[in-house]
Write a structure and sequence with these properties.
By secondary structure, the protein is mainly α. The relative contact order is 0.14. Keywords: Membrane, Transmembrane, Transmembrane helix.
């Protein structure tokens, strides 16, 4: 039973989706573990630093990973997951750029660039993925 599951993980049908999923889970874990990650805008700090924000990233990452290793891949689920991922990555990238420019912290600007690169990778997956059940 366990050996079959490990063999299934070795034969990932969509490795690019799995890579994107791991990135989403990593971002989510960083957001969950740091309760003071966001500091601007001041009125939204409490909402943005809530563990739900990171939990959404983790949930989408886990869902995307399960889609990548599944044999029953629905095109609509793929499309919806990639679009949700793009929205989350765009939010996080812009947030990092804004926080970096306000605080003058170069590592935040670098994180924004890295998240922007992951967003471009997501757009590449969206462009290469099937759109319909032809």
């Amino acid at each position: 039973m366990m050996k079959e599951k490990l063999n299934q993980l070795r034969r990932i049908n969509h490795p690019q989706h799995a890579i994107l999923a791991v990135a989403m889970i990593g971002i989510g874990l960083i957001l969950v573990c740091n309760d003071y990650y966001f500091f601007w805008p001041p009125f939204a700090v409490g909402f943005l630093n809530d563990d739900l924000t990171g939990g959404i990233f983790i949930a989408v990452g886990v869902w995307l990973f399960s889609w990548a290793i599944s044999n029953k891949n629905k095109i609509a689920t793929n499309r919806n997951l990639l679009v949700i991922t793009a929205g989350l990555l765009a939010f996080e990238s812009v947030s990092e750029f804004i926080h970096g420019s306000i605080s003058g912290q170069p590592h935040m600007i670098m994180a924004g660039f890295l998240e922007f690169i992951v967003l471009m990778f997501d757009f590449l997956l969206i462009s290469k993925s099937k759109k319909h059940n032809y």
